[in-house]
Amino acid sequence: MSDLENWIRLAKLETPKRTVALVEHFGSPSAVFEARPKDLMAVEGTSQRLADKLRDAASQPVDKEIEALDKAGARMVTYRDPDYPSNLRQIYDPPLVLFVRGTLKEEDRFAVGVVGTRRPSEYGKSMAFKISRDLAARGLCIVSGGARGIDTVAHTAAIQTGRTIAVLGCGVDVAYPYENRGLMNKIAENGALVSEYVPGTGPDAWRFPVRNRLISGLSLGILVVESHVIGGAMITAGIAGEQGRDVWAIPGATDNAASEGPHSLIRDGAKLVQKAEDILEDLGIEVEESPQRPSIPDNLTPEQKAIIQVLDLHPKHVDDIMGECNLAPASAGSALTLLEMQGLVRRVPGNSYVRVM
Q: Which fold is adopted by the domain 302-355?
């Protein structure tokens, strides 16, 4: 049996803390499978059930997993490899192996996890985008879970200015959610897709809370953008606290249920964050003039300037914009279209607009 096959056999058991202890004790995956049952059970934490699973796993073929790994253009990084993220080594139960599409870099240890609801408000999406973009532009890697909502926004923003890592609750060869398959390819080009699950593993619901410890484990701290009090983002924040990581939260509107999670974190001591500089200061990183922010052109028309001044991160209906700016429908429509083309405003559902700046 090859080392690659045996690492994969151990990974399929999905008991990282136990399998790491066994490899440490016996010296290699092959030695683990060659050990007698009584010797296996002499290692603290090894039960009869695990010893039986190891016996059964020793003869199981892993050709499909190896083929899927190769087809996906991915590789395996064991916890003994130099490329294994140093931040992950510090947590209570680091993965035995990581399956990686893309590249892991030493500087990725300077990372911030950005998490939140799968159904964010326009305000939440705008805040997640701006902060992720600005942190990535400063050289921090943005870590998230590749899911719909805030995760997708954070990855998309980070790609524009720097690196990002998506920690998946399925195999690195599985596109989930399916509509993010294009984004996943971009992440692999601008960072990495990472999973502790063997290729071909489906997105079973129970796997996502388990993988959340890797999002926080890879990061210096976790930023919660929007979340209900009970949700995956709050689980990640709780794990981050247990791992000794920083926890940050963005305040939101009091009438938005997705603000309840961040507000509860702030009440419990999480730092309130309004901009990327708040996190940089908390990490002791020198704050200079924010790079790569889009500037407002000098040649805006009076109508465009008026619209920019009345818009913020909260959606405003076009009728309210016309009323506050005293603009006719044709003038307002033309000005909004040009502003949208310049990336200064964004149209959102309900015939409303938000300011991007």
A: Arc Repressor Mutant, subunit A (1.10.10)
